[in-house]
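@channel sequence for tomorrow's demo:
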Amino acid sequence: MKQTLKRAALLLSTMLMAAAAALAVAQQKEPERTGGPYVPTPQVVVDEMLRMAKVGPSDFVIDLGSGDGVIVLTAATKHQARGFGVDIDPELVKLSNAEAKRRGVADRASFQVQDVFKADLSRATVLTLYLLPSMMTNLQSKIYEELKPGTRVVSHDYHFGSDWQADDQMSFDVPEKEKVNGVPRATIYLWHIPAKIGGRWQLRIDAPGSGQYELAVKQRFQTFQGTVAAAGRSAKLDLTELRGEVVRFAFTAGSGRNVFSGRVTGDTMQGTVELATGKGTARWTAKRDTTQAATR
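structure tokens (generated this afternoon):
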């Protein structure tokens, strides 16, 4: 009797272990769709997204939650761009790769089964999204930190919230969407990944009598504020703009205002300044003080 009970217990334990293993395999093959249900993006919306992002032959487009692959496929066929899509649905990925071969763009467009949080974004010059608000929020930090300054991010219908507002947006009628969500319109949002300019800088204007300034900047995504100091006097920055690597700001000097425009490259900024003296323009450069922690 004891032997029979032991065999039964061993059999039951083996069956439970096998069931657990099978469940683990099934979960690996079919990961949870965290970005929301698959909803096709109408072609007219795809075309407008790529137009707003100014996609061209030199671009590499990455689509997170690529679904049927229409965005990357359109970028490859209509704009001669390269890129890949990431989705967790193996069947959709299979269909997308097959369509890339059918269209003759498999050398420029590919798709892979992957968690969007693990996707390598480093090659992107354009990132496209059609994900639910919660997913947008969860991806915000990854997108901001991993993409290179100047990369364009374009999203269908959903944004990052008031914390990181879009640089541009547009809405237009899309009647076929009414069958999907009851709203016959689409909104497209566009961001340019901003250069990281928070911190302290040594700024120099290459003009007689202009001298050097200490620039202190606090940044929140593409918005920033700061002060400039020289010879014991300080002034607040105004007219501040940051679009990708392109920066603009101004400060009062005497009875006028110095207005700066230029480009950020890592720990260096340079460009031209309209002089407060009214005597034309001059070159300016700024170097970040890397001995102090950057201020976001």
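heads up for whoever presents: The longest strand covers residues 256-265.
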